[in-house]
Amino acid sequence: MDSETADVDLGALLASCPLPLTDYKEIVLAHGSGGRLSHQLIHKIVLPQFRNQLLEPLHDGAIFALGKTRVAFTTDSYVVSPIFFPGGDIGKLAIHGTVNDLAMCGARPLHLSAGFILEEGMAMEEFWRVVQSMREAADAAGVKLVTGDTKVVDRGKADKIFISTSGIGVIPDGVNIHPGRAQIGDKILLSGAMAVHGIAIMSVREGLEFETEIASDTAPLHELVDAMIGTNIDIHVLRDPTRGGITSALTEIAQSAKVGMLLDEARIPINEEVKGACEILGLDPLYVANEGKLLAIVAAPDADLLLSAMKSHPLGQQAAVIGEVTSDHPGLVMMKTRIGGTRVVDMLSGEQLPRIC
Amino acid sequence: MKFLDEYRDEALATKVVDEIRRTVTRPWVLMEVCGGQTHTIVKYGIDRLLPNQIELVHGPGCPVCVTPLEMIDKAHTIAQRPDVIFCSFGDMLRVPGSDADLLVLKSRGADIRVVYSPIDCLKIARANPDKKVVFFAIGFETTAPANAMSVWQARKQKIKNFSILVSHVLVPPAIGSILQSPLNRVQGFLGPGHVCTIMGYREYEPIAERFRVPIVITGFEPTDILQGALMAIQQLEAGIHEVQNQYVRVVQRDGNRVAQDLVNKVFEVCDRKWRGVGSIPKSGYRLRHEFHEYDAELLFNVKELDTQESSTCISGLVLRGVKKPRDCPAFGKQCTPEHPLGATMVSAEGACAAYYAYGRHLEATNGLRNS
């Protein structure tokens, strides 16, 4: 133990830090993670070129009027790998994702478009299965696919299939759902257990395969939203917390509405199997992707009624009030931890990487 | 979840905190050695539950943080070769070298894969006989057995296209180095539970004796940390300095002899440089001579690559518990997890990254309580 640290230059260590590393010169995967780098990419590169009132709220879709009808319009792309996974496939996801983005605007989904980018060499049978699955999902959601496009790229230039869908829906009178409407004192509700989809995908990803019964929770949420709107409660905000998990979704709302939030860790629903998988993989479920789940924000007196409406729908049986909107620390989401401490839950910096120990 | 929820129980945690409050009569500085423990402390807000007299400082036990820059650059040099598949634990991917990080190299076309176990690399090597598969073997004593096993198995299975880039470090020499520093403030340690699962804790006994510091081998769940802190405080208040074992459900005094034997067959102790700290004699492992054909440093001739650490952030002082992340003027400003200036901001287990992830950078500006 007669070790020395003679070559440590304490003076140098105490000096102030030099200039930061420059921004990424290339797109890295973390730019698509739904966390802070995605946020930066949109705010620095995309938004300045297209500034307008409809885009700027960065809601799940744009809301505008056509004559006397208010409509919601949205678009999304799907690149999931593998394309078939427990509980779903890329086709189902492409329908549900866009249906849900419309539902989060309070809209009844009407018509969808689909763009396919196919890789040379993809098995025809697989493409057929994807398209069939999309048709089933569209039928179940009561939407029509009314226009589309197909392109094929060289082998290796895509990963079997990428799908892009856009959708349009009509917003009923009296419904005004918007991230900017989160108000101090409001309650935050989550419709079911978190992190299921992300873990289901990881369980079949090459190199990570593990045996589990966990299947994706992908589902169209418009009927659940219908049931919630049917209570005549004035729902302030809806959001489906997909990639980036519930943390990124809530942080975006907190920043948009300039309010704080306080979550109660013990009340956030999570299934035992998902919790176990997260422990083993070293992942925080608050950042893991969800499908078929929604966050709702309503005035406190309405929370109980809305919760019981959610619980009586098959997709909301595990719904819970997980926190509230606060006046403290605007733009920040805090959490009371399981053992009674508090901490900030911040947006994810990059991809969530498995920890070493 | 069984065997986890019990250790995250609010009532139990409150009980231990109350006991700590009853025990403390004056200020004490405790260091948790492991990055995993730092992570738990900030994730659960444990630092805010403790009485003000107890200061927790964060130790050097984040293997990602202390891997020296020149080793990262060696990894990058190897990973960029077209004939190489470079495998790594996930959190090494974001560590910046002199030029880029592994994620950027991947975006430029390098074949870089995240594995959960070095043994997985053998499967990759068999499936890609025309490629050289290299595993970045970093970590403390905890990861050494699995890394040793990968080399052992590669030789047994006659796999020729597999090698490891070794940057292994050892905890006891680092603790010794902290205690010998004239800047040292640490009065008691929460010892590394996972490391001692492998190594046992006999080697900590002479340290506790020589430097008259209590060392409590501690687990990673919130109530583990609180109980470990309580045991260390009880010793300090009573003027005792022993090695005690809080993590009895996992750690034994002699550790895992089978794992130790394997490690000793494959590795030997050597001097190692620690990022932000400097060179510490006999503080790491390298491959034994008889396993040189699996040594990526030799195979790819990067042995002489030498890099000057360009950033002069205070991570060296943070790693030794002299400074806290927020003492750094760049913390949360120029230095963030997206653009880390130094070692401790890089891994989720690094003290700066843990502070950042759990919002400590935001609190000052939002008037929240400082910890």
Task: Give short descriptive properties of this protein.
heterodimer, A: 357 residues, 60s Ribosomal Protein L30, Chain: A, Phosphoribosyl-aminoimidazole Synthetase, Chain A, domain 2, 7-stranded mixed β-sheet, 5-stranded mixed β-sheet, 9 helices, 27% helix, B: 371 residues, alpha/beta, Rossmann fold, 11 strands, disordered C terminus
Question: Please, could you describe this protein's structure?
Answer:
The complex is a heterodimer of chains A (357) and B (371). Chain A is an alpha+beta fold and 357 residues long. Chain A folds into two domains: 58-171, 60s Ribosomal Protein L30, Chain: A, CATH 3.30.1330.10; 179-344, Alpha-Beta Complex (Phosphoribosyl-aminoimidazole Synthetase, Chain A, domain 2). Helix content of chain A is 27%, strand content 23%. A seven-stranded mixed sheet of chain A has the order 9-11-8-12-10-13-14. In chain A, strand 13 and strand 14 form a beta hairpin. Chain B is α/β, with parallel strands linked by helices. Chain B has one domain: Rossmann fold (3-Layer(aba) Sandwich). A six-stranded mixed sheet of chain B has the order 4-3-5-6-11-10, sandwiched between helices. The two termini of chain B are 30 Å apart. In chain B, 60% of the residues are buried. Residues 364-371 of chain B have low confidence and may be disordered. The chains are: A alpha+beta (357), B alpha/beta (371). At the A-B interface, helix 1, helix 2, helix 8 and strand 14 of A face helix 1, helix 2, helix 3, helix 6 and helix 9 of B.
